[in-house]
């Protein structure tokens, strides 16, 4: 289905036209994975654009835009994903007109039974809310214009990214703490019989957190295999949504064979093997990335003059702090390295101790 066909059908037929086009798209077995997620996002964009444009004209609202954030902003719509939308405005419209515009967009979404996370804010309000709520800020990092004033959205994106980078020394440790708390609560995906594809450690939440870290310019994740791992987890969630008809991320035992079949796999064992491998890739990238983030932030926080004084004078360069971890192994600014006195050629067990210390 081309973009022109989608636009004609959804805008001309209203919610029922969008629902029918959406159903046909989800039933196309030959169209799955990233192409289907992108097509579903485009289809939804076109429908919402029609709703927004008509409503803005009726209400006489200018200086407003409809913005997709979070997973929808990334164009990663699974069959049962919720729509995360921001109605952004410049503050010039009166409250009644703005409320009428919002209702004209939100209610058709609800009428179709789609889950909706929505807000109405000015750029200043959006930045303030993001500054107070880390989860809101993370969602806005993926903000994408759907309809309306593109310049308004572009200025917000620029401001949000600048805020994120400026606040990285405070925000990244908070994000790391959130990830650790979630991992303790949900477990390690690769070791679970009924894993949560989104919330468990090594799942989609961690993959999204890595994107946020990269956007901060503090550190970047190892790229090898990461995109494919993310795709595997997303494809599995798509199949899970279609198989169960529910917005669930938990791959329950009784549904694993059906999900495997939907993905063209022989059985649940092969499915879990692929999911676990993807989770291991994300977990490894997560470990490496957060270790680098901690190292960089720790180095930034140490005052150069103080380090120089402690090392014996302002003219000398401060040596990195080294903390013993095991015999012949130390922690140097967050990295596990061999001690200066270590002799690997005389100590065959040294690599094992180093690996254990780094684990």
Automatic annotation (TrEMBL):
Keyword terms of this UniProt record: Hydrolase, Magnesium, Multifunctional enzyme, Nucleotidyltransferase, Transferase
* InterPro entries from the UniProt entry: NT_sf, PII_UdlTrfase/GS_AdlTrfase, Polymerase_NTP_transf_dom, UTase/UR
Q: Does this entry carry the keyword Coiled coil?
A: no
Give one Pfam hit by family name: NTP_transf_2
One GO molecular-function entry: [protein-PII] uridylyltransferase activity
Domain of life per record: Bacteria
The record places domain PII-uridylyltransferase/Glutamine-synthetase adenylyltransferase at 180-286
Q: What residue stretches are annotated with the Polymerase nucleotidyl transferase domain?
A: 63-94
| Spans through the membrane | none
Write down what this protein is called.
[protein-PII] uridylyltransferase
Query: Which species is the source of this protein?
Result: Streptomyces anulatus
């Amino acid at each position: 289905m081309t973009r022109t066909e989608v636009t004609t059908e959804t805008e001309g037929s209203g919610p029922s036209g969008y629902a029918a086009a959406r159903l046909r798209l989800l039933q196309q077995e030959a169209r799955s994975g990233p192409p289907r997620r992108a097509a579903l996002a485009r289809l939804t964009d076109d429908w919402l654009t029609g709703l927004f444009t008509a409503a803005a004209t009726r209400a006489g609202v200018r200086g407003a835009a409809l913005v997709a954030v979070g997973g929808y902003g990334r164009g990663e719509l699974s069959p049962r994903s919720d729509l995360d939308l921001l109605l952004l405005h410049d503050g010039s419209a009166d409250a009644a007109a703005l409320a009428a515009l919002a209702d004209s967009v939100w209610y058709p979404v609800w009428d179709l039974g789609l889950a909706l996370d929505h807000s109405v804010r000015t750029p200043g309000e959006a930045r303030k809310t993001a500054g107070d709520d880390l989860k809101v800020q993370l969602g806005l990092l993926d903000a994408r214009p759907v309809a309306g004033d593109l310049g308004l959205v572009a200025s917000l994106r620029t401001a949000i990214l600048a805020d994120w980078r400026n606040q990285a020394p405070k925000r990244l440790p908070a994000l790391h703490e959130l990830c650790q708390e979630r991992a303790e609560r949900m477990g390690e995906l690769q070791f679970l019989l009924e894993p949560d594809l989104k919330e468990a450690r090594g799942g989609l939440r961690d993959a999204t957190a890595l994107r946020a870290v990269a956007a901060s310019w503090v550190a970047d994740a190892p790229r090898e295999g990461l995109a494919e791992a993310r795709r595997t987890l997303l494809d599995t969630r798509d199949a899970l949504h279609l198989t169960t008809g529910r917005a669930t991320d938990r791959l329950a035992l009784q549904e694993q064979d059906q999900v495997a079949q939907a993905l063209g796999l022989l059985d649940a064992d092969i499915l879990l093997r692929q999911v676990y491998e993807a989770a291991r890739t994300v977990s490894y990238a997560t470990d490496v990335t957060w270790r680098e983030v901690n190292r960089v932030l720790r180095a930034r926080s140490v005052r150069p003059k103080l380090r120089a004084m402690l090392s014996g004078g302002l003219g000398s360069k401060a040596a990195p702090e080294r903390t013993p971890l095991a015999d012949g192994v130390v922690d140097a600014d967050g990295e596990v390295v061999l001690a200066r006195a270590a002799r690997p050629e005389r100590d065959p067990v040294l690599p094992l101790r180093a690996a254990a210390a780094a684990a």
